[in-house]
Amino acid sequence: MSAQLQRPDAGRPSLYGDRRRWGLVHADALDLLARLPERSVDAVITDPPYGIGFDGHTWDSGALTDGRAFERWTSSWAREVKRVLRPGGYVAAFGAPRTVHRLVSGIEDTGLEIRDQLLWLYGSGMPKTRHLPHDLGTALKPAYEPILLARAPLKATTTMGNVTRWGVGALDIGATRVRDEVRDVVSLGEVVRRWPANLGLVHSPGCEDRGCEGNCAVREIDAAVGKPVSRYFYAAKASRSEREAGLRELEARSTPIFSGGTTPRANVHPTVKPLAVMRWLARLIAPPHGVVLDPFTGSGSTGCAALLEGRQFLGIEREIEYVEIARRRLDHWARQ
Ligand SMILES: C[S@@+](CC[C@H](N)C(=O)[O-])C[C@H]1O[C@@H](n2cnc3c(N)ncnc32)[C@H](O)[C@@H]1O
Fold first, then answer.
1. Rounded to whole angstroms, how far apart are CA atoms 330 and 21?
2. CATH assignment of 14-130+138-334?
3. Per-residue pLDDT, 11
4. What's the pLDDT tens digit per position in 169-184?
5. Of ligand 1's atoms, which has the minimum distance to the CA of residue 299?
6. 86 with 41: CB under 8 angstroms?
């Protein structure tokens, strides 16, 4: 099935999708957001540029690496996001520890209400440091990413009134409760489901059911606490098969990897998010069958997760090489 709906023509952004459940637009987010109708989206889950000049990529460089400019730019897209969200609709936006204060201020300045900051711990990042003599360095190993949770103002006197009128405004705790393996054992198999926390842990990519790799954050925290911290949410980092599903027809290209060197990959996007994390966010903030928007789609992980959770998806991405990857991945997961 071809996912192309329209061919690009002069002055019109190209649109891909199946007309029913998902759409992906090749465009600049700021242009396209301004053209979307008011109150047309239930949730925004997005992973925008972090303003850190990530690996020299043009989409995260130039003016964006100036803190104040990054904050102003954040406000410019967040203002449109507030306009297109239904009253009470949530935004989950990933950031980097170094620039998240600008992300938060930029979003808050638009009138979106800051509700929480989630931490996604992973422990398998590589330090981007200069190695200096005498075991000196310039950076720590990254082990978490903050995820800002904000909400469009309610348009009802109570939260439940807003949910009834607009379908959004509250977190879906029931859909995101966490199974407690320790209590399961002591309660003889009764499934205990804990209230979800604002902390997510991920195992290292090489961990298996029977044990964890040496550098696994989950293992280290379990050891420090003295019992499994199973009350938190776990997701492995995106595996190669997950990143590349649906891309068989794309030519693999030599791609730099975090640990140094290169490897052939069809999904050349450098910051692919794990579907498990994105699926959990979709369940938490987007109502069943609701519309999830990602203005910075990259290789499409938000959309794949939204589709797998039975939500609709609208994505925007400016770089054509990522659009090609995202539309194939979306087409693949839409058929699962
Ligand atoms: C951090 S990446 C998103 C990665 C994505 N979460 C994934 O799993 O593949 C941010 C994306 O935003 C895109 N981008 C940057 N500025 C944009 C703009 N003004 N309009 C649309 N897309 C933009 C970049 O090309 C990049 O793919």
1. 10
2. 3.40.50.150
3. 62
4. 999 999 998 765 544 4
5. 9
6. yes
